């Protein structure tokens, strides 16, 4: 079996993208407990939302008092994209300066170790693999006591399950630096050329498939669906949830202990997407796309009607697209209309010499001003707050676009799992489905692959006491 290209590549791509910014689920941050599986048990969120006075207070500069200057070292992929947010933070806390420690393609743990060895330990970090490895190496501070006394978190209303993907053995080890949403990108000009109107926000997977067939014209080199791994990575996974065959993305069960990818219903979902290539002809295989110059592998070329997009595609679309584009939420299935979102984990390092200041940087992410800035970059709001919901209508990012679809994507988001699942990097959900949907691999290979991983993750979970 070919070495898995899967999760490390995906996490890197998704995080780098997200973390170029624009990564919903979690109970009230004060009460979210931890289940035996390592996921935080959902708890009730406080009613209401931060008052306008509380929001204003959280956005004001800290009161004048004497502080020694502090420089926080932040291990991050941001590479200049967050400079404006660093400045906003410094204006609120004038004695604290953010110094980004670039990753430059290295494993984050190696960067942290190098900082320690140099006698300049880092304070906060983004996470590039799983929380289990970071926790086993004693790298992360438990945020629970900081969150419990934080005025910003106490006044915030958080989505149910907010900490589920960030909690391990009862410890809240990270918060979302950013909630990266995804949408269906739509080439409205290509639809109009074939007499198709922009679908409504309550469209279905059957609508998606039928329109994709209707606008396909091989003689013109035009196809309904972009040949991109994101289609199976995000949309196949979402359809399995939408039709009631999986509880979580990547075909995971409710408590994230087992994959259901090898069940007949999920395998039929894979066949459904495979038929876009083999039966409908509305999406090219990898081989066919390569033979025709890979024009249909990039939505920006204007030759395909639908693609998956997130915040990372917005700058190029806004600056380079020569056609009229828009967004739609993921389609409805038989039972629901789930979206897809990625949390970019942000954690405090146990070796930090400035833990109180480090937590101020973490908690600052959940002020209204910081959240508005992230919406302007294409991210989801991480708070349940009417002021932020209304701000989608005002954000320059979405003027002239389908703003309601953006709100629906935020409301319906299901968070990508993985960072608290044992042996996640060896779960071969990604490569095998790429090879089946875009290639010629036997779909029945899913069964032994999934059975082997299910056994291994359970054994590892038991050995870790999860």
TrEMBL record:
Residues 27-68 are annotated as: Disordered. This is Extracellular solute-binding protein. Keywords: Signal. It holds the Pfam family SBP_bac_1. The keyword Signal applies. Residues 1-23 form the signal peptide. The keyword Signal applies.
């Amino acid at each position: 079996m070919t070495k898995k290209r899967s999760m490390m590549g995906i996490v890197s791509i998704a995080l780098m993208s997200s973390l170029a910014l624009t990564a919903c689920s979690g109970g009230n941050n004060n009460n979210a407990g931890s289940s035996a599986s390592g996921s935080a048990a959902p708890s009730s969120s406080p009613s209401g939302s931060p008052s306008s006075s509380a929001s204003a207070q959280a956005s004001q500069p800290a009161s004048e008092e004497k502080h020694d200057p502090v420089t926080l070292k932040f291990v991050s992929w941001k590479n200049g994209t967050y400079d404006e947010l660093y400045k906003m933070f410094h204006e609120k806390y004038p004695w604290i300066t953010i110094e980004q420690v670039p990753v430059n393609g290295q494993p984050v743990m190696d960067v942290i170790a190098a900082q320690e060895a140099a006698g300049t330990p880092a304070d906060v970090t983004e996470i590039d693999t799983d929380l289990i490895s970071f926790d086993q190496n004693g790298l992360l501070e438990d945020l629970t006591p900081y969150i419990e006394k934080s005025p910003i978190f106490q006044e915030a209303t958080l989505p149910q399950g907010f900490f589920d993907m960030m909690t391990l053995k009862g410890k809240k080890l990270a918060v979302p630096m950013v909630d990266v949403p995804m949408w269906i990108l739509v080439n409205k000009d290509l639809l109009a050329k074939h007499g198709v109107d922009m679908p409504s926000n309550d469209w279905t997977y059957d609508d998606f498939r039928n329109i994709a067939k209707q606008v396909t014209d091989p003689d013109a080199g035009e196809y309904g669906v972009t040949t991109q791994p994101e289609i199976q990575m995000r949309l196949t996974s979402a359809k399995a949830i939408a039709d009631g065959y999986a509880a979580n993305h990547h075909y995971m069960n409710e408590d994230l202990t087992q994959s259901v990818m090898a069940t007949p219903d999920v395998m039929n979902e894979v066949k459904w997407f495979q038929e876009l290539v083999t039966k409908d002809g509305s999406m090219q295989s990898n081989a066919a796309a390569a033979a025709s110059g890979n024009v249909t592998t990039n939505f920006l070329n204007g030759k395909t009607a639908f693609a998956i997009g997130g915040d990372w595609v917005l700058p190029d679309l806004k600056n380079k697209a020569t056609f009229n584009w828009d967004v739609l939420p993921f389609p409805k299935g038989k039972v629901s209309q789930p979206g897809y979102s990625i949390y970019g984990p942000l954690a405090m390092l146990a070796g930090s010499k400035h833990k109180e200041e480090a937590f101020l940087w973490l908690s600052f992410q959940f002020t209204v001003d910081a959240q508005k800035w992230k919406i302007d970059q294409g991210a989801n709001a991480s708070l349940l707050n009417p002021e932020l919901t209304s701000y989608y209508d005002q954000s320059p990012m979405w003027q002239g676009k389908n703003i309601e679809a953006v709100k629906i994507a935020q409301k319906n988001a299901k968070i990508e799992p993985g960072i608290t699942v044992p042996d996640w990097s060896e779960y071969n959900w990604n490569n095998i489905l790429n090879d089946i949907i875009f290639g010629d691999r036997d779909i029945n290979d899913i069964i032994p692959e999934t059975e082997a991983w299910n056994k291994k993750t359970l054994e590892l979970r038991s050995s870790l006491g999860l």
